[in-house]
Design goal:
With about 325 residues, the protein is an alpha+beta fold. It has 8 helices and 14 strands. It folds into 2 domains: about 180 residues, Ribosomal Protein S5, domain 2, CATH 3.30.230; about 140 residues, GHMP kinase, C-terminal domain (Alpha-Beta Plaits, 2-Layer Sandwich). Bound molecules: ligand DP6.
Length: about 325
């Protein structure tokens, strides 16, 4: 069949500074509130999609090995939407390599579905605007909508039932604020106990703090937006810590409670607080896992990383700079 081809895309993961934790529509992954993130360089996903009439089903290989049934089904459901838009019947071979430890709380689904959205639409011969790619990536994973763009990115809650307005957009274009860093303190190599999709659903259903958490987000978003616009790291960092703690508080209060932290998570948070007490601008955030990500300046990054490495239980650190949005690297 003509028009069928392969495409490869790369995407960086992103770390939310104002968190997404709750949906207004689970089927379409529509967020209950907006969020704001930083897309990272280096930590991400590279994905190749090739459609072929010879395949009886979609196939997924993840980091060199065939993926399990669950991951394959999630990708196949995503490809089904691309096929429907392109009027295509062919199945696809998907090869994906993560440079982020999968399921370790470093949001591999964010870069994964952003790279898949870009590669699959190109391979299917579909033209898509960045907003349309963001919408498509969101259907795979809510946070993936943000990795379509580079640098600081805001995801809109949207009002529409069909989700056309629940898309991300850059807050500050590309490298307009490039001397910030996120230092990731890895505190465990174990897979996380409960994935974010299920955890945020349980939080919404059972946590008495869920409504208060969602109600608190618009103020944090406005504050974070203003801090990014004025490149005010301290102002942004204060919001980031508040947003992360409130997100985790809402999850901890679910039934049964969801606690992602381990002793090293708390120790790393204390290290950040101590760094700040000594005059260094450093601010933590924590996602659906035990790792601690620290926002600081490029100049402070090695000092912050050293202090985190000396923290009991911290296994290693990774320093990440702001990165580009998802993009095509190869079309065969
Ligand atoms: C804690 O995007 O993984 O990282 O939409 O169900 O796929 P689904 O969830 P996901 O949730 C991310 C949660 C978070 C916060 C954030 O990235 O904003």
């Amino acid at each position: 069949m003509s028009g069928l081809r392969a495409a490869t895309a790369v995407a960086g993961t992103n770390i939310a500074l104002v968190k997404y934790w709750g949906k207004r529509d689970a089927a379409l992954n529509l967020p209950a509130a907006g969020s704001l993130s930083l897309t990272l360089d280096g930590l991400g996903t590279r994905t190749t999609v090739s459609f072929s009439d010879a395949l009886a089903a979609d196939r997924l290989s993840l980091n060199g090995a065939p993926a399990d049934a669950r991951a394959t089904a999630r990708v196949a459901a995503f490809l089904e939407r691309v096929r429907a838009r392109a009027g295509l019947r062919a199945h696809a071979e998907v090869t994906t390599e993560n440079t982020v430890p999968t399921s370790a709380g470093l949001a591999s689904s964010a870069s994964g579905f952003a790279a898949l959205a870009v590669a699959a639409t190109h391979a299917a011969g579909l033209g898509a605007s960045p907003a349309e790619l963001s919408e498509l990536a969101r259907l795979g994973s809510g946070s993936a909508a943000r990795s379509i763009f580079g640098g600081f990115v805001e995801m809109a809650r949207g009002e529409r039932d069909d989700g056309r307005d629940a898309v991300a957009a850059p807050t500050l274009g590309g490298d307009a604020w490039s001397d910030v860093r996120l230092v990731v303190a890895v505190t465990s190599d174990a897979a996380k106990a409960i994935g974010s999709t299920e955890a945020m659903e349980r939080t919404a259903r059972t946590s008495p703090y869920h409504a208060a958490w969602i109600a608190s987000v618009p103020r944090d978003l406005a504050e974070a937006r203003a801090a990014v616009a004025s490149r005010d790291l301290a102002r942004l960092g204060v919001v980031a810590e508040r947003s992360a703690l409130r997100m985790h508080a809402s999850a901890m209060a679910a039934e049964p409670g969801i606690l992602y932290w381990n002793p090293a998570t708390l120790a790393a948070m204390e290290t950040v607080t101590a760094l700040r007490a000594s005059g260094r601008a450093a601010f933590f955030t924590i996602d659906a896992g035990p790792h601690v990500k620290v926002l600081c300046t490029a100049e402070s990054a090695s000092t912050v990383a050293d202090a985190l490495l000396r923290t009991p239980g911290v296994l290693r650190t990774v320093v990440a700079a702001p990165g580009r949005g998802a993009h095509l690297v190869e079309v065969a």
